[in-house]
Structure formats: structure tokens, C-alpha cells
Design brief:
The chain has about 625 residues and is mainly alpha-helical. Helices cover about 60% and strands about 5% of the residues. The chain has 27 helices and five strands. It has helices at about 5-20, 20-40, 50-60, 70, 80-90, 95-120, 130-140, 160-175, 180-195, 195-210, 215-235, 245-255, 265-285, 290-310, 315-320, 325-350, 350-365, 370-380, 385-395, 400-425, 435-440, 450-460, 465-485, 490-500, 525-530, 550-565, 605-610, and strands at about 520, 535, 580-585, 595, 600-605. It has a five-stranded mixed β-sheet. Helix 25 links the parallel strand 1 (about 520) and strand 2. The radius of gyration is 28 Å and the shape is globular. The N and C termini lie far apart (about 95 Å).
């Protein structure tokens, strides 16, 4: 074979490795494996409780109509997810349906990041190191986009409408990046129908990309100007009035809906995200700069609106709209924008790979370097190009010095980095395998070296084609093993959740007494009341989720909460005429129960209210 023929054969082999179905399949399978490892299933917790309740209401609407969560309306009525999830639960039971949603949500995240990498980070030769790394590392992370704490995160491991809405929104941005506006609009609309508070942002971004930049800026500032005008009028109408009193105090003190004291917020993270988008708008790929710029304007508009409503004019409709949620979309796109900037710089300046190696060494020393590095990249993007060329030429003359500095940094960082692997591995709630904490740390979402190394290996031209074809088989085997242990719930919890909204399970012993639609006081077992007894709960902490949408609901929830938590005897709650049944944790002397379980005793309220004198609070 001639040298020219050999060169063509080698090139063809490289293309097969980089673009063929075997390489793509391996990358997707490996990404899903990383997702499973970093998002073990923990059951019906967090907001999955509320979505389980919404599914129960879909199946038993009359029985749960009197529940406090639905008496004043529910956000579930605005979501396409409710009927879809409700029917899944009706057929499969809540346990199976919830796991199916979580798994499908994880698969959608993999697909979304893969689509975004192919549309934003690929070049004329196909996929790139940055694109492969973005997929492998992105699926591992669960980044918070909350204004204060970490209540809301990307990549959740429990079943909500967000499990489908967020990946759909990311896919819409990927389609928008390659000019498929109509397809992007359809997918963004689906995201909005699934979760209006999240899906509205991809839709607005699509509108902004159709406008000149000046008009886009004006449109993003308009809501804040409208808020100021309406707030100054101080209207006394539902949705258009300023919030106040205990309702506003509660939201500021305990929820993650409004910004709290500036010292306790995540504003530094938010500003770093804005810096990443600004860097992309200034120095990213030419075709993507308008997209980055408009998302930057949209994010700034949402943040400004959220800050004004939190600290000055808490207009009800704006607080309920939670405009800070735009950061769920801004955070992943900002990450891709930074990788795009680095990729463009690497293609232009030969010294950039060495600088990247030094930057990674600094990050290995301490994660706190990440934000300053983002700001440094943002600052460099604002420097005129000819100055950057001069600096790059000067840096090339210092190439050996940069090599020495990079090696020295890695030597200093390596011991501490190994310790960090153990620390990251110890964060796993339930270990995947005994011992070897460092190995857990290596696959943990906070650790980037493994996905970076694998992304580099996937792009090597000299990798044997046979090895690439064997890789999907090996990864598929690992997937089967990991999936077998993905459910990390203890056995008692697994058995309990298997009975939720499952018609094939034996009925609860209390069902023979409690009628459909009765109101039960059993705050310790709210899920049992909703999902096993299929009836209304008098009060629970979970019912407080969503009180931002109704002042009347908040007032009634507070009233009942004071009574439940202040009752010296559980049966005194029977004085409230809406209570039908009370479940105590132990027998109450001199009063006969209707049913007794090891940890629960059922009492009827109507006989107690019939005696004279009736019990009082």
C-alpha cells in the first residue's frame, strides 16, 4: 500500500472513530453510566411528594378535593405533566412511574447535552474534545440555580415535571443554535407546557433571537419598568398587589423563592454565569455570539426583575413567576459558552493548551479558583484582539517557562487532589462498592479529570477500531450492573413506596373505617394519607410547598399548623369541625380507638364532638 493510500486509510479510520455510530453509542452509554452513578434513586422525597399528591388527585379528584393543597388551586392544573404522570401512576403505581420518570429524565439530559455539544462545540471536522467533555462532565453535575440555598438543582434524582421540562428546553436551545427555529419553538413550547415557570425562558429566548439586539435589550428591560410602574400605583387587586404581612415574612425567612440578605445569596455565582455568557458573546464562535448575547440580556433582565421584586416592590405576580429561574437555562449554556471561547482561542493561539493545563492545575489545587478563572476569561474577551496576539507571541517565547510552571503546579496540586478524591467519594449517600473511596470520588460529579481523560481518549486517531467497537459492549455491561444497584432505598422504605397508589397492593387496615374524602389528622405520615388511604390530610409540612401562589392557602395552612404543633393532645384537634379522623402515635387512656397498629392508633372525631361538653382547644 502506498503512503498516500495508507494516509487515507488512517484518516478514514479516524473519522469512523470520531463520527461513527460505535463512537457515538459509546459516548452516550458512558454518559448515562455517569448519570446513574451520580444520581442514585432515593425514592419519593423533596418535590416528588407533591407530584405524587398531584397524581393522586388526578386519579381520585373527589376524594382529595378537600385537601388543603387543592382547596385554593394548584400549580399542577397548569402543567401537561399532570395528566401524563397521572395516567402513568394509574397504570403502573407511583413507585414504578416515579422511577420511570427519573430514568427517562436522566436519559433526556444525556441527549440534551449531546445535542448541545454537537450544535455548539462541533467544528467542520466533527465533534471536539470540548464537546465530548461537556457531555461526560455535564451529566455528572447537579448544579443549584436557587437564589439562596440549594433547593432547586439541575439533574434531579426524583420525579417532577422538571425531569422532562429542563432537557426539552436545552434541546430547544441546541436546535436554535443551528437555525432550526420552528423545531426549537415546538420543543420549547413542550417544555413550557410541562413546567411554565421553566419552559417560558427558552420560548422568550427564541423570540429575542428574531429581534435586533437593541430591541431585544429593550424587551428584557420592559418587565422591570412595568413592575416599577405597577408597584408605585400600589393596586389592590389579586395578582397585581404588593405582598406583605406574615405571608411575605414567611417567604423571605424560610423559602428559596425570594432573595434574602445579600450576604446569604448566590449572587456571586449568578454574576459568574453572566460573565461566562459575556465571554461567549465577545469571543465565542461567530455564529453563536448573537445567541449568547441575547441569553445574557434575558438573564440580566430576569435577575433585575427578581432583585427589584425581592428588595423593593414584591408584586405578587412577579414573585410567583420567580424570574430568577432563568438561571436554570443560563448556567448550562454559560458553561458551553466558556468551552466555546477556550476552543476558539486554542485554534488561534498555540500557547493556549499550555495555559489550559496550568489553569486545570490551579483548579486541582482548589475549586475556589473556578470563579476567578471565569472572570479572567471574561476580561480577556474584552481586550482588543491585537493586544491578545501580542501577548500570545510573548507567551510563545516563554514556552519553556510556562511548561515548568505548569509541571510545578501539578506536582504541588497532586497530593491534595488525591485527598480530594477521598473526600468527594465520602459524599456518596450509599457507596456503590466497598472501600476505594478515591474511586467513588473519581466518578463523582465534582471531579472533572476522569471525563476529561475519557473525552481525550475518544478523540485519539490511533485508537484501534476494534477497541472502539468493543467499548459499547463493555459500557453496556457496566450499565446493567450499576442499574441493578441504582435503587438505594432501604428495604422497608421500598416496600412502603411500592404500595403508594398501587391497586394491586392490599388495602391499608384503616381503609375499612375512613371514607373517601374524609379529612385525617396524621402529620407524621402525610404520604400514607394521600397515597395509601387516598383521602385528604388536615395539615402537613409538604402542604406548605406552593403557598407563594395563594395568600388564602398560606393563612389557612398557618392556622392549622399552629393548632397541630400546639396541641397537647392529638384528640383536641377534633374540635375543628372539618376533622373526621385523628391518628395518634400511641393509645390515649379512657378513649376507645377504632383500630390499632404498632405505630398508629385511629380515633373517630364525630363521637367525641357528640359528647357534652365537647372537647376544646
Amino acid at each position: 500500500m502506498s503512503s498516500r493510500a495508507a494516509e487515507k486509510a488512517t484518516e478514514k479510520s479516524a473519522l469512523l472513530i470520531r463520527h461513527g455510530p460505535w463512537a457515538t453509542g459509546s459516548l452516550l452509554l458512558l454518559a448515562f453510566l455517569f448519570w446513574l452513578l451520580n444520581h442514585p434513586y432515593q425514592g419519593i422525597w423533596h418535590d416528588a411528594r407533591v407530584y405524587g399528591l398531584i397524581a393522586a388527585h388526578w386519579i381520585y379528584p373527589e376524594a382529595l378535593a378537600n385537601d388543603l393543597f387543592f382547596r385554593f388551586g394548584s400549580q399542577g392544573s397548569l402543567s401537561l405533566f399532570t395528566p401524563v404522570y397521572g395516567e402513568l401512576v394509574r397504570v403502573l403505581g407511583l413507585d414504578v412511574a416515579a422511577r420511570l420518570v427519573v430514568l427517562s429524565g436522566g436519559a433526556l439530559w444525556v441527549a440534551a447535552l449531546f445535542a448541545l455539544s454537537r450544535t455548539m462545540l462541533a467544528n467542520e471536522r466533527g465533534d471536539t474534545l470540548a464537546g465530548r467533555f461537556a457531555v461526560l462532565f455535564g451529566v455528572m453535575l447537579s448544579v443549584s440555580y436557587s437564589p439562596n440555598a440549594s433547593v432547586f438543582v439541575l439533574n434531579e434524582n426524583f420525579a417532577t415535571a422538571r425531569s422532562w421540562a429542563m432537557p426539552a428546553g436545552v434541546i430547544a436551545v441546541g436546535l436554535l443554535a443551528v437555525g432550526r427555529t420552528w423545531w426549537a419553538s415546538g420543543v420549547a413550547l413542550l417544555s413550557c407546557l410541562l413546567h411554565p415557570l421553566l419552559g417560558i425562558w427558552p420560548l422568550v429566548l427564541i423570540v429575542l433571537t428574531r429581534l435586533p439586539m437593541r430591541q431585544a435589550l429593550a424587551l428584557t428591560l420592559l418587565p422591570t419598568l412595568a413592575l416599577i410602574a405597577i408597584g408605585m400605583l400600589n393596586l389592590d387587586a389579586p395578582r397585581w398587589r404588593l405582598m406583605g404581612g406574615e405571608w411575605l415574612d414567611y417567604l423571605r425567612a424560610t423559602s428559596d423563592i425570594l432573595f434574602k440578605s445579600p450576604d446569604n445569596t448566590r449572587l456571586p455565582v449568578y454574576f459568574t454565569v453572566l460573565a461566562g455568557l459575556l465571554a461567549g458573546a465577545r469571543a465565542g464562535s461567530q455564529r453563536l455570539r448573537p445567541l449568547y448575547a441575547r441569553l445574557l440580556a434575558l438573564t440580566c433582565g430576569g435577575l433585575l426583575l427578581a432583585l427589584v421584586s425581592a428588595y423593593w416592590l414584591p408584586l405578587e405576580i412577579v414573585v410567583q413567576g420567580q424570574p430568577w429561574r432563568v438561571f436554570w437555562l443560563a448556567i448550562p449554556v454559560a458553561g458551553f459558552a466558556l468551552l466555546d471561547v477556550i476552543q476558539c482561542a486554542s485554534a488561534t493561539f498555540r500557547v493556549v493548551p499550555l495555559l489550559i493545563g496550568s489553569v486545570l492545575a490551579l483548579m486541582a489545587l482548589d475549586d475556589a479558583f473556578l470563579q476567578p478563572i471565569v472572570w479572567l476569561i471574561c476580561g480577556a474577551s474584552l481586550v482588543p484582539r491585537h493586544y491578545l496576539v501580542m501577548l500570545a507571541e510573548r507567551a510563545c517565547s516563554w514556552r519553556k517557562t510556562v511548561w515548568v510552571v505548569m509541571i510545578a503546579l501539578w506536582l504541588v496540586a497532586l497530593p491534595g487532589f488525591i485527598v480530594e478524591l477521598d473526600i468527594a467519594g465520602a459524599r456518596f449517600i450509599t457507596p456503590w462498592w466497598p472501600e476505594a473511596l478515591w474511586l467513588h470520588g473519581l466518578v463523582a460529579g465534582s471531579m472533572w479529570p476522569l471525563p476529561l481523560l475519557l473525552a481525550w481518549l475518544f478523540g485519539q486517531k490511533n485508537m484501534l477500531l476494534l477497541a472502539m467497537k468493543m467499548m459499547p459492549i463493555v459500557i453496556a455491561g457496566l450499565l446493567i450492573w450499576v442499574f441493578a444497584y441504582w435503587d438505594k432505598r432501604p428495604e422497608p422504605l421500598r416496600l412502603m413506596e411500592a404500595s403508594y397508589l398501587n391497586s394491586r397492593q392490599s388495602p391499608h387496615p384503616f381503609v375499612k373505617y375512613i371514607q373517601s374524602g374524609d379529612i385525617v389528622v396524621w402529620p407524621e405520615r402525610e404520604l400514607t394519607v394521600w397515597l395509601t388511604l387516598h383521602t385528604a390530610n388536615y395539615w402537613s409540612k409538604a402542604q406548605g410547598i406552593g403557598v407563594v401562589f395563594s395568600q388564602e392557602k398560606f393563612t389557612e395552612w398557618q392556622r392549622r399548623g399552629v393548632l397541630v404543633e400546639g396541641a397537647s393532645r392529638r384528640l383536641t384537634l377534633c374540635a375543628d369541625p372539618i376533622v373526621d379522623w385523628v391518628v395518634a402515635t400511641q393509645l390515649i387512656p379512657s378513649i376507645a380507638p377504632l383500630a390499632v397498629l404498632p405505630d398508629a392508633v385511629l380515633y373517630a372525631c364525630s363521637p367525641l364532638r357528640a359528647v357534652s361538653p365537647a372537647p376544646t382547644f
